[in-house]
Specification:
The protein has 434 residues and is α/β, with parallel strands linked by helices. It has 15 helices and 17 strands. The protein is elongated, with a radius of gyration of 23 Å. It comes from Albidovulum sediminicola.
Length: 434
């Protein structure tokens, strides 16, 4: 095996993880996999590869929040016990390759005693081109041909020495070890990044993602914060290149992910500052469910000042620090204009994004927070107890994601349900709807 250890965190990465482990085995890299609370086949795929290339498989619970700062600290702690000279900081959808005409073995031998701390890479982002562009986990590295060269502020230095100082690595979200050209190897690696095997796959990954407050404060993630400001749409065909006709061409890279299209935002109405602040904010994707809970609370406690909000970004900005009750509903019960797969896709995307926006507000402003499923009923005594706990600060520390609930009777899955389940399935399972 190479004098190389790959370390990666994966959550719901079943679509690409098997191919990546094949790639890492081909390189001869020892591999540490951290499963970040997946609810798909990620764990079983990694477990089946124990010994080669997976030398260690760890489980890290998922709290409902994407916290890159925490992930990097965990990886840093693991790095202290690794004895190989080189580290490959891998993502489950990224495939690192040496320059044409050489091998990783030759490359690492060449720099065994050089002053190089890290290798820059040229990134090529492979994308589904249309709504019907859907690739199989067993063959996507052969069937995905359309890509864009991609470049962020710092070149991704996925390969670096284990003893490299990691202060700059922490500051750049694990992207870059050094900005000193004298410490960067002259050879540039190739990074093939498969963002998603379909547009629905990308929606499932990004529309429901909630980011930690400390990650947001560092301005990490760029336009990956899809739930906040973006729709996911087919990329502009004019910017896509085809691997079959030109090979990989690094010129004129883009700096933002092409499938994220900024949503139009109307002006947000300023909160009413003329009267007292509300005692409680009730918010959710489904206006009918939110209204029902708010009216039930008003009926049992008429003096309660309640503010009602939806999940529109213009609304969410004003949730503030008022105690927040998030009302959830199975997306299969929500109305959708029109019919067919497109209507289900829109319903799933709007529901997933809306849930994430309210959770993101809770993460950023840290109000007393609780989640209530409308399917669990509107028992006045239980609602009053939750309301009082929120208003008196007796709620437990914020942890997004309700525990599993008793099963809800639903129709069996069929093809008509597929777009909704593909996009929102992970969040639906988390909330007990599947």
């Amino acid at each position: 095996m190479l004098d190389l250890t790959a370390i990666l965190t994966a959550r719901n990465a079943a679509g690409t993880l098997g191919a990546l482990l094949d790639h890492l085995e081909g390189l001869g890299a020892r591999t540490v996999v951290i499963d970040h609370g997946s609810d798909d086949a990620t764990w079983s795929i990694a477990a089946a590869r124990r010994g080669r290339p997976v030398t260690e498989l760890l489980y890290e619970p998922f709290t409902g929040v994407f916290d890159l700062t925490r992930q990097l600290r965990l990886k840093h702690d693991i790095l202290q016990s690794i004895r190989t000279r080189w580290i490959l900081h891998a993502d489950a959808d990224e495939f690192l390759e040496p320059p044409s005409g050489t091998s990783f073995a030759a490359l690492l031998d060449r720099h065994a005693t050089s002053g190089a701390m890290a290798f820059d890479s040229a990134e090529f982002m492979f994308l589904p081109a249309t709504e019907d562009d859907d690739h199989d986990p067993g063959s996507f590295t052969r069937t995905m041909h359309r890509y864009v060269p991609f470049e962020e502020k710092y070149s991704k230095q996925r390969l670096f020495r284990r003893d490299a100082p990691l202060d700059f690595w922490f500051r750049t979200g694990g992207h870059c070890v050094t900005a000193d050209p004298a410490l960067v190897a002259p050879e540039r690696l190739t990074l093939r990044h498969y963002l998603g095997l379909s547009l629905d796959d990308i929606r499932a990954q990004y529309l429901g993602r909630v980011f930690s407050a400390r990650d947001r404060a560092k301005h990490w993630h760029g336009n990956r914060m899809a739930s906040q400001r973006y729709d996911i749409v087919p990329p502009d065909p004019a910017i896509l290149r085809d691997l079959r006709s030109r090979g990989l061409c690094p010129s004129d890279p883009v700096g933002e992910i092409p499938v994220f299209a900024r949503r139009p935002e109307g002006p947000a109405a300023a909160p009413d500052a003329s009267g007292p602040l509300p005692d409680l904010t009730v918010a959710g994707v489904d206006a009918e469910a939110v209204g029902l809970i708010a009216e039930t609370l008003r009926a049992i406690e008429p003096t309660l000042r309640i503010s009602v909000h939806g999940a529109d970004p213009a609304d969410v900005r004003w949730l503030g620090r008022t105690p927040l009750l998030h009302v959830l509903r199975d997306p299969r019960g929500l109305p959708a204009p029109g019919g067919g797969a497109e209507a289900l896709r829109a319903r799933a995307s709007d529901w997933l994004r809306g849930v994430a926006q309210i959770r993101q507000a809770a993460v950023m402003w840290a109000p007393p927070y609780a989640e209530w499923r409308i399917e669990d009923g509107s028992d006045p005594a239980r609602l009053l107890a939750v309301s009082e706990a929120l208003r008196t600060g007796r709620t437990p520390p914020l942890a997004l994601g309700l525990p599993r609930h008793s099963a809800i009777a639903t129709a069996p899955a069929d093809s008509a349900d597929l777009p909704l389940r593909r996009i929102a399935g992970s969040m639906m399972r988390q909330l007990g709807y599947l």
